[in-house]
Each structure stands twice: as structure tokens, then as C-alpha cells.
Design brief:
single chain; 241 residues; alpha/beta; Spore Coat Polysaccharide Biosynthesis Protein SpsA, Chain A; 7-stranded mixed β-sheet; 8 helices; dolichyl-phosphate beta-D-mannosyltransferase activity; DPM1-like; Glyco_trans_2-like; glycosyltransferase
């Protein structure tokens, strides 16, 4: 059994899911995978079940209905802690996160980081195939987060991460409020508030070529307003470990 678990939430990812699973299992380092599928009507979970016959380190948790990115990851975090993994990763199914970079995040945590972020902006702007409007929205969203929260993270909305187990044991999951991309901001902010060391590892982010993006105006609005709410709430919370 590996000590490292890659959590991949899915909703209608039949075009990508087999390829991403095979890519991770063909890496030179051994990772296990947990797919959290939110009742994909396109049969994503069926593909995963077939691959489980081939890969003993492939796990599947199915949920009823589209319940949101944040709740999917929290479900996965709890599963990972219950099953004694030491390094827990977040990764998208659509190859926007290069599986080859998993080992770089792992090494960052082995070498002293508590949370390692695959960062698009720590060394310039490393994004491929996004329209300029989306690049600017993402870049300035991270700048906005830094101004409001005072955390020194260049890629605050990044969703490619590795956590050491102690971080997820410490953060009270029932107090994580957000379910969309604001979830990614909240987890980084909360980890820093608890005194954990968060480092950014440069990656190249490549937009999906197959399947459909899950970004929406509602998700963006939650992130924009949620940052202010999160900062105000933090004034009345104690972060002790």
C-alpha cells in the first residue's frame, strides 16, 4: 500500500477518466487514487469500476447528485484519514494538472512543506490554452485574495495540491463553508492560520481539451464574496493546534 493518495472528483469525465488513471499508475512513483464521482450520468463510475479489476490501488466513492467540489474533497479527505494515508493530493481529471508533477508536490512535503501548491503564477504566468480573459480573471482573483486576506500565495485559487496528513487532521472540516473554487482559497487560508507551512511549486497549467469545464458565474461569485466573509469570520476564530 502506498502512503500517497490522489483524490480526483468527477462529474461527466468519461473522455478523460481512463487516461488520467492509467497515467498516474504508470508513473515511476507509486500513488493510489480515490475517485469521488457525483453520480455522473455519462458512465464515468462504470469506467472506474472496470479499471478497479486491473488496479488494486484504485478506489471509488460514489455520491448521489452533483454536490460540489468542496464537499467531494472533504469526503475524500475523511476517507484518506480513515485509511492511514500520509500524503493526500487534490488533482483534476481533465489533464489541466500534469500527473508528472505529483512527485514534485510530494517531494516538497517530504522536504518540509505542510501543504504544497502546484502554482501557475509563482514564476510568471504558466497557463496554456486559456483565453486571455480567463487568464486575467484568475490572475487578478489571486491578487484580490492576497489584498483581502494578507496571505502571501501567488496562486490562491490553485486546485493542484499535496497535504501532509497532520494538516487535514487539524483543520475542522465541518467549519469549511465553501463548495466551489472558494473552497480552494479557504483551505489555503485556514492552513496558514493554523501555522502550517505552505509552499508553491511551479507548474504549467494546460486547459482541458476534452470534456466540459465546470466553471460558472455562481462559482466565481461565491469566491469573490466568500473571501471577504472568510476574512471577517477569521477575526472571531481561534486557530490552535
Amino acid at each position: 500500500m502506498s502512503d500517497s493518495l490522489v483524490i480526483i472528483p468527477t462529474y461527466n469525465e468519461k473522455e478523460n477518466i481512463e487516461k488520467i488513471i492509467r497515467k498516474v499508475f504508470n508513473l515511476n512513483f507509486t500513488f493510489e487514487i480515490l475517485i469521488i464521482d457525483d453520480g455522473s450520468p455519462d458512465g464515468t463510475a462504470d469506467i472506474v469500476r472496470k479499471l478497479q479489476l486491473e488496479y488494486s490501488g484504485l478506489h471509488l466513492e460514489e455520491r448521489t447528485g452533483k454536490l460540489g467540489l468542496g464537499t467531494a474533497y472533504i469526503h475524500g479527505f475523511k476517507w484518506a484519514l480513515k485509511n492511514a494515508y500520509q500524503y493526500i493530493f487534490e488533482m483534476d481529471a481533465d489533464f489541466s494538472h500534469n500527473p508528472e508533477d505529483l512527485y514534485k508536490l510530494y517531494q516538497a512535503c517530504v522536504n518540509g512543506a505542510d501543504v504544497a501548491i502546484g502554482s501557475r503564477y509563482v514564476k510568471g504566468v504558466n497557463v496554456v490554452n486559456w483565453p486571455m480573459s480567463r487568464v486575467l480573471m484568475s490572475y487578478f482573483a489571486s491578487m484580490y485574495v492576497r489584498v483581502i486576506t494578507r496571505i502571501n500565495i501567488q496562486d490562491a485559487t490553485a486546485g493542484f495540491k499535496c497535504y501532509r496528513r497532520i494538516v487535514l487532521e487539524t483543520i475542522p472540516m465541518d467549519k469549511i463553508r465553501f463548495v466551489g473554487y472558494a473552497f480552494q482559497i479557504e483551505m489555503k487560508f485556514t492552513a496558514i492560520q493554523y501555522g502550517f507551512r505552505v509552499v508553491e511549486v511551479p507548474i504549467i497549467f494546460t486547459d482541458r481539451t476534452e470534456g466540459t469545464s465546470k466553471m460558472s458565474t455562481k462559482i466565481f461569485r461565491e469566491a469573490f464574496l466568500g473571501v471577504i466573509q472568510m476574512k471577517i469570520t477569521s477575526w472571531f476564530r481561534k486557530y490552535e493546534r
